[in-house]
Design a protein that fits this description.
The structure is a single chain. The protein is an all-alpha fold. The chain has 3 domains: 330 residues, no CATH class; 81 residues; 117 residues, no CATH class. It is 60% helix and 1% strand. The chain contains 27 helices and 2 strands. Strands 1-2 form a two-stranded parallel ribbon. Helix 9 runs antiparallel to helix 10. The radius of gyration is 27 Å and the shape is globular.
Length: 638
């Protein structure tokens, strides 16, 4: 039930902009020493993939230094510092009131955001520049959304509180310490002794809820028990932090509190395990069951409003189904070229088995990355700064993380999923097939350039204050949009390539369907796994990883929807401004990256200089309502 950080942590935040470590420098030195060997070797040959000699960074250090811009920068928003102030102050407040789900934390955050809304209303909106108006609208929406999330948190805590009647004791102990009150060690021991008893009573009541016609009992569900078990684990960490602060430093504290604390800690550990094993259904030593936390239609509506998506969940489901149908039609065309008639699943099975041998996937990823960079530069689609071109790196993803991320993740560091020697044999085979060559060719550019790595590079340097308005519809939508655009620009060279790209397009359309259906109560996690296997052609290993990733609480409820919907938003904007001849590809893409992270509707408002009002609400209908579009690849290769 962890709702903060409020802005969902995206892939590019979590994995992309990583600071270099000692290990990174060791890797760089090793690569430099092995450079002559690397250039002498050729990449693994797979049908549809030419042998290539890897490119090497060739830029000088001087090339990394930008040209000085003219001064003053008239494009800067007047609210840049104000937005930055909000971000920094909110983070400070969360550090001070850092106890999850404490009443004091929620009260303080509510006061804080209410006061910000009051102060923001005092600005003279009409005197702001277009950039300033954009920031005003975005900041106001963010503040209002934070307050609605606090309401959601109140409701969730009300549901789980019968399972956690002792939470107030733990929160009270830690809050007193945070207020720097002098501790009464004897009273603390009494509180801890009572805490252990309260935890045991809570467990007995929960156990009673599992028995029909039991006496005093708390009946619950797997979903609520999962939330409660996560909160119980967080409460245990809070209690441990509180205890470590005094233990050993204050000898009277240790004399009084040590044994009562140990009993309370053990009871809390056992209760957390009870909730997870007896009610949620987890088995020690095995992968946790996928339960998730559906937020319902009202929750989806609130989140869509925050993302400035003026569509209902049902309308988005229809878009997902329509996009999936288009992918199937295109897959049948490719299957015919491969000699499989309309049996696109047979063609997909053939493509799955076109993979490099174990140990060579990183070579393939390297070559695919350079191929994509050369393509976008040759066709003047976007500016690739020399430093961005040269600093990205490759790491392997550990086997445990591949259970949640069965495919690679990207950014400045691209993390490659591929079989390792510790995997079960069948998992190895499914990982090979799930990361086949033509699947990888379809998405390396999504993760690196012109996708997430280029995004992270540019947003770390332009309009950095707009990190406060981070949204997966911009982050993932941008990267998915490039898959669409490269398809249109003739990046695919074979029907196998097209099957690889279409697999991912189906996958993103399916994400809309299964994730919204889950949150609407229409599909269970197991049904979502079966859906991906049956409708998209996933291996069961990768389907389970995808659904686990979607519902384990790491990503926001709309995160999986954001890939294709955000991509469709950027695609509609490209049609409006580039295909109409108003902007070139390079200017269009460079400008978007420099504007910073924000809902795509506000990107459009910035680009077309749309008239904005203080109370602006989303209204852009970006998806065509007529017949399905034609999207036969248009080759631009010479």
């Amino acid at each position: 039930m962890r709702l903060r950080p409020r802005v969902p942590v995206s892939k590019d935040q979590a994995h992309k902009d990583q600071a270099p470590t000692t290990k990174d420098f060791v890797i760089v030195i090793a690569l430099l020493c092995a450079g002559t060997v690397a250039h002498a070797q050729q990449s693994p040959s797979v049908k549809g993939m030419p042998k290539r000699t890897p490119s090497a960074p060739a830029s000088s250090g001087a090339a990394y230094v930008p040209q000085m811009p003219p001064l003053p920068d008239s494009s800067s928003s007047e609210l840049r510092d104000l937005v930055s102030r909000y971000t920094v102050d909110r983070a400070a407040l969360l550090r001070r009131y850092g106890i999850e789900h404490s009443p004091s934390q929620r009260a303080k955050l509510r006061e804080f955001h209410d006061a910000w809304l009051t102060q923001l209303a005092k600005l003279d909106f009409d005197k702001l520049s277009q950039d300033g108006k954009v920031d005003y609208v975005l900041l106001k929406a963010r503040l209002a959304y934070e307050l609605r999330l606090l309401d959601r948190e109140d409701a969730l805590i009300k549901v789980t509180s019968p399972l956690l009647p002792f939470a107030g004791t733990i929160i009270g102990l830690q809050e007193a310490r945070r207020r720097m009150e002098t501790i009464d060690t004897r009273a603390a021991a009494v509180a801890l002794d009572g805490l252990a008893a309260d935890i045991e009573r809570a467990r007995a009541a929960a156990e009673g809820g599992l028995k029909p016609d039991a006496g005093p009992a708390v009946k619950t569900t797997r979903i609520v028990a999962l939330r409660a078990s996560e909160d119980a684990a967080a409460l245990r960490q809070t209690l441990q932090q509180w205890y470590r602060y005094y233990n050993g430093y204050d000898p009277m504290f240790t004399w009084w509190a040590d044994q009562p604390y140990q009993r309370a800690d053990k009871a809390l550990e056992g209760y957390t395990a009870f909730l997870r094993e007896r009610i949620v259904g987890a088995v020690p030593g095995q992968d946790e069951p996928i339960v998730g936390n559906p937020i319902g239609r009202d929750g989806l509506t609130v989140d869509l409003e925050r993302e400035m998506i003026p569509y209902t969940p049902e309308e988005l489901l229809a878009i997902g189904e329509r996009e999936y149908a288009w992918c199937v039609d295109e897959a049948k065309k490719a299957a015919r070229e491969m000699g499989h008639g309309d049996d696109w699943k047979a063609a997909l099975e053939k493509v799955k088995n076109l993979h490099v041998e174990p140990g060579r996937q990183t070579d393939l990823i390297r070559d695919l990355a350079y191929e994509a960079i050369e393509f976008v530069e040759k066709h003047q689609l976007v500016t690739v700064p020399p430093l961005a071109r040269d600093v990205w790196r490759i790491e392997m993803m550990p086997p445990e993380r591949q259970k949640v991320n069965p495919f690679f993740l990207g950014g400045e560091v691209i993390q490659v999923s591929y079989p390792t020697d510790t995997m079960d044999h069948q998992d190895k085979l499914m990982s090979l097939r799930g990361n086949a060559t033509h699947f990888s060719r379809a998405t390396v550019q999504h993760e690196l350039i012109p996708g997430h790595h280029l995004q992270g590079y540019m947003t770390a340097r332009y309009n950095t204050h707009r990190a406060a308005f981070e949204t997966p519809f911009w982050g993932e939508g941008w990267a998915l949009y490039w898959e669409m655009l490269l398809w249109d620009k003739g990046f695919t060279t074979s029907p196998e390539d097209r099957i690889g790209m279409l697999f991912w397009r189906m996958h993103r359309a399916a994400r809309i369907v299964f994730s919204l259906s889950f949150h609407l109560g229409k599909m269970s996690p197991q049904e979502a796994i079966d859906f991906l296997v049956d409708k998209v052609g996933h291996e069961r290993f990768t389907a389970e990883g995808e659904v686990r990733r979607s519902f384990n609480g790491t990503y926001s409820p709309l995160y999986q929807v954001a890939y294709m919907i955000g991509g469709l938003q950027f695609r509609a904007l490209h049609r409006e401004l580039v295909e109409s001849g108003k902007m070139s590809d390079r200017v269009f893409h460079d400008t978007i990256l420099k504007l910073g992270r924000m809902p795509v509707e506000m990107v459009r408002a910035s680009l077309i200089k749309q008239r904005l009002t203080r109370d602006y609400t989303a209204s852009w209908k970006f998806y065509p309502s007529g017949p399905a579009r034609s999207s036969q690849p248009r080759s631009t290769r010479e």
